[in-house]
Design goal:
Number of domains: 2
Strand content: 25-35%
CATH architecture of the largest domain: 2-Layer Sandwich
Distance between the termini: 43 Å
Shape: elongated
Strand order of the largest sheet: 2-3-1-4-5
Helix content: 10-25%
CATH topology of the largest domain: Alpha-Beta Plaits
Number of strands: 9
Bound molecules: cytidine-5'-triphosphate, zinc ion
CATH class of the largest domain: Alpha Beta
Order of helices and strands: EHEEHEEEEEE
Structural class: mainly beta
Largest sheet: 5 strands, antiparallel
CATH superfamily of the largest domain: Aspartate carbamoyltransferase regulatory subunit, N-terminal domain
Length: 155
Amino acid sequence: MSDADNHQLRVSKIRNGTVIDHLTAGQALNVLAILGIDGSSGDTVSVGMNVPSDRLGAKDILKVEGRELTAAEVDVLSLIAPDATINIVREYDVIDKHRVERTDEVTGVLTCPNPPCITNGDEPVRTRFQVLDAGVRCVYCGTIVHEDLATLINT
Ligand code: CTP
Ligand code: ZN
């Protein structure tokens, strides 16, 4: 048993929800921002920062109770945390565990920052962004965003 296991868990187990594990230390708040999780929905959210990890030395971890991430949210997560593990928990058991996969395109979660873009007009056009090495590009108007992806999240 490793040293980290010998002691009480820092963040308790959850009954139902999503555990986003193996985040690079320091990433937890950015991930919350990019997923638009700010506590306003009333869901219980636990944040662990610089938690000792055998594999990573130190890691961040997020536990969002009562909520499973949508595929679109996982796509956005992959933009800033490509090495994270998503664990779906039901009745205390991990029923699904997968690594985040980098995608080529993110649909419907980000908003284009260019006001005249067709996706910001009256027509119901779902946003589509092509994933670049650094940042994303609107498929409709070509606007490229390198930083602050969290500010593009639909609310
Ligand atoms: N977890 C939780 N609540 C549960 C079950 C699991 O918060 N009811 C958390 C664990 O604390 C761990 C993560 O979900 O951070 C994955 O759980 P598990 O697969 O049991 O742990 P490990 O085998 O250590 O995972 P890995 O191999 O991915 O590091
Ligand atoms: Zn656009």
